[in-house]
Amino acid sequence: MAACPQIHENEEYHKRLNEDSLMHTPEFVIKPRSHTVWEKQCVRLHCTISGWPEPRVVWYKNNVSIDPMAKPGKYKVESSYSVHSLEINKCDFDDTAQYRVSAMNSKGETSAFASVVVKSRLLTHNVQLPQRSPCLEYGVKFETHIVEKFGVSFGREGETLSFGCSVIIYPSLQRFQPEIEWYRDDKLLVQSKWVQMHWSGDRATLTLSHLNKEDEGLYTLRVITKSGFETHSAYVFVRDADAEVAGAPGAPLDVQSLDANKDYVIVTWKQPAVDGGSPILGYFVDRCEVGMTHWFQCNDTPVKFARFPVTGLVEGRSYVFRVRAVNKAGMSHPSRVSEPVAAMDPADRTRKEGVVPGRPRDLSVIEATKNYVVLSWKPPGDKGHEGVMYYVEKCVSGTDSWQRVNTEIPVKSPRFALFDLAEGKSYRFRVRCCNSAGVGEPSEPTEATTVGDKLDIPSAPGRVVPTRNTDTSVVVSWEASRAAKELVGYYIESSIAGRNTWEPCNNKPVKGTRFICHGLTTEESYVFRVRAVNAAGISDFSQESEAIKVKAAIGGGILHASPTPPYGITVLECVRDSMVLAWKQPTFIGGADITGYFIDYREVIGGVPGKWHEANIKSVSERVSELKENMLYQFQVRAANMAGVGIPSLPSETFKCEEWTIAVPGPPHDLQVQEVRKDSLVLLWKAPVYQGRDPVNGYYIDIKEAEADFEMWRGVNEKATNKTFMKVCIHVEEGESYVFRVRAQNKAGVGKASDPTEPVEAVTKPGTAEIVVNVDDDGVISLNFECSNLTADSKFVWSKNYKEMTEPERMTLETKGSKSKAIFKTPSEEDLGIYSCFVTHTDGASASYTLSEESETEFMISKLFHPSSPVIPLKTELAVELLEKGRVRFWLQAEKISANGKIEYVFNDNKYKMNFDKNTGVIEMFMESLGKEDEGTFTFQLQDGKATNQSSLVLIGDVFKQLQKESEFQKKEWIRKQGPHFVEYLGYEVTPECCVRLKCKVANMKKDSVALWYKDGREIKVNEKLDFSEGVLTLEITQVSNAGIYEVVLKDDRGKDTSTLNLTDQANSSTQLKIQSTEEGIRLYTFVSYYNDELHVTWHHKDAAIAFTERIKSGVVGEQLWLQISEPTEKDKGKYAIEFFDGKGGLRRTVELAGQAFDDAFAEFQRLKLIVSSAECTGNRLIIMFFTDRARVAGGLPDVVTIQEGKSLNLTCNIWGDPVPEVTWLKNEREMVSNDHYILKFESGKFASFTITCVNTSDSGKYSILVKNKYGTESGDFTVSVFLPDEEPGKKKK
Fold it and tell me: Per the database record, which ranges form the Fibronectin type-III domain (predicted)?
């Protein structure tokens, strides 16, 4: 046997020399043979399999794969040098089955079968068996009994622990001694300095010297005789030793050496469960040469990853390693040392010399963390007569600048670890070979590799479920971490409920998702939490479990079981190569929610079923794909929960895989019954997967008594319903049982009926509750439901119109104990509907309540939509006014408020104080001036006992700018009036003598006040008559040539004031040319400062003077000059201009009447024309209705909003129209959706609000609101500009 490993290694070496020629499908050299055994005996099936590549071997029982971990101790699977075996311990009658062993590799798959028949002595009535049947080899039947068994044990690191059992073997023959084996976690233990085993002839003892956490696990004693074996198992817990420094972490565990080469070893370990109260900062790795006692630290700084490459080893020497953890408190004890490992080339290689070696092959990055990167490659095919060494080179991605990493000493191993790389940067690597003949060509470079941890810390485990077991233990189950890579296991912690003092339940990670926590205090309540661990670190804690009292469970601690089989398999849809299946849920789910289903299928050829095949690896799909067209199939389904995968269902009927082409729909599925009462129930279903040629447009429900014949089906509804639920009224005697089915219809007709429901008894069960509507004193409306028969896993599920409300926007769901309520946030007509509540894991506890305008609960409806919560009445809403000096006053007046009333002023989510006159109810707040930071929404919040109210004022955009401008003007006016100033500014009048008199009225003049006149910037001193009397200044101009710009300046030591009059020819002053639509056509117009007959006006179209006709006219109304185009056509498009000339100078104004401008104007003309023509027939009513009912944006939106980053923006506008318009918000011409950042509301059919929470620069852009109803469409636009302040503004004073 000692030569077997050498022979096997020699075979493997020759296989690698010429892999392609040796590859072949697996073959059975020796097939397993069938056995017939007695109960309680063990049986071993073994076979020998050849094949290359080495095949993967799986054992099956009745076509179900055998998992040894599912039943520890029951099955043992071994593979050694092409010999494979399955050992079945303590056979019982259920082990009678056909067993299959399947071998598969890349070339193919083959199987062999063997049967095991287990006979019971109780059934062999015709055979007189002796009390102890003879042993085949010795003529004796040995009976083994293990007594004085060891139990769950607890130890501490560094201590010595011994435990064992007494063994009684009958008959007792001195020369026939049993074989004693000890196992830890199903791994056979061997004698070592850490493990000593002793057998005294009647007692087996195991001694663990110098305990370490690696010794924690499930220990099993196996006593083997020629007649079979007996086992006993118990768990051993190992606690951390007291730390040398208080608060230091526990020691790492399971230190191993991997991938050893000449000068390189990777050391791995597992993180400790106890971190000492502060996070672990990292780990130090120590090495020691075998035979020496001095330890050397391998890394200067702690590494966080539970894996480290140790370099710089001496070839040929052996080393052991240990690891220490460190946190801010100090260093842990060192771990147990690893097994010795030799630093040498793992394989013999032929050597050549005198030839420059070729390129290394298959270079790859096998590990990349933020601390290091590990490269691996294969030696070149042509490497000379001597051994080769390697140089490693790197370059930053995107460049071609290669740098040699190991410039001084080449490495000997085809592995290399690179340190000191910049985290977050991307690198490429390549390797060169070298020997005495020279340095070879570089290998192909690797792909770009970013420096950083590729392996993520696992996510926190899911729901934790504790289950009673014994008086001192609890079984803890949990949901595995999602998408966890290279998972090492889990740590479980416990705490007495309410204390928040956590203790580890295990110090060695457990692989499964279930663990028995021992050493608990009887009758004490505990909570549990779980963490996952891999090489990258330890995950966050799971949610705490529900509290559980420690005491023995009824029946000795029954754990969660896997579900019973599903049943009632049907086909919902069939295409050429796939089918969609449906089935009914298991009658017993095993005490834990079902997480999914697994589907198996088999072909049926000539009525003979074939082998079962797995249809889905993950338990998520109901569609079976990759089937063969026109082939017959059977299916079986297995349900899975936390406890595992249940046994499969019975095989289904035989279904043919062929494309469905029928015109009518397939059957509905997933029928559910809720709200069962003595005279009614609610039936729910899902739409057919196969729709037929046309969409489904309705459903019919059928009913019959459960025991009635098939012909007794009768319809419930004469008219098809388009919903997927229906309340069915049953007019029979209470207690009758019924079944239901549903049929779907489309335009082609009614399709196949669904499978019937389970029988439903028409009875109102004791304790059945209904939903109750409640309105409290504050006007808060809620729907309330109570369930008296809750279980630990029960949940309240609320639905509206039988669609589950997971995150309702208009309601708040609250559950406390056995009561749950759904609270309306802002009740409105949108909340009408059917509200139902269903309680899971009960006997069908459910109820519903209908809120409709036709319901009998008119009082509740009126309260729901017109809530009477206490409101503080207001005489005036919040308003703003300007005071002297530009001060701004915000105020409102309450009709009635007590002396205990409270008022808060909120501006952009900040609150300030204000003045409150409790006698008059006037509430006011003053601001000395308005700055940019004061733009936003102002809100006064009032509270008087339970009564509340608030009033808001939005000052944003043009509204705010206008108020700010007026405030600044008032402030300047007050400052101006402190000195000499104008009461009436400079103007002119024409006297009867045809002179022009300039005059102004002044005030606050004193003796030293001066009035200076200027014309065109020059002071007037001669030839003009100045006059000043009774506060009026005048200046007469006698000649027309004196036209110009006149200015008067008043000044003294208190200040000065200026007034200016432009007394030049103002005929050229006019507004821009604009376009207006009328019921007759299109009008172009402009306004001039003044108009007289001397002003010459010319209109142009496409740079040519317009010849006026009956269709095209011009005219003057006051200061308005207009051009009317009646019944416009395409020829009227183009550029229009108006020219003014007064004999001295001219002015030209233009407008483009083309493109969109013409289209919009023409469309408005047609609309107005239609209104007028219709009104001639129907009177003015149509015009009034059109303008009244058309969708409009009534106002409230600014043109431009400038706001500082980080603030909140709120805009509100009024919407008008009947019917109520549809409201759409746009950003940069793209439709917006309401979310946490953009809050879009349309309330009461009148008020549309737009809110941006915490504005940032990406919110800058053009926004629009679009309102639309059947009478028309209108939009409002505004622009938001977000700026970054140069510095953080201080808190403004209020």
Answer: 251-346, 359-453, 460-553, 565-660, 667-767
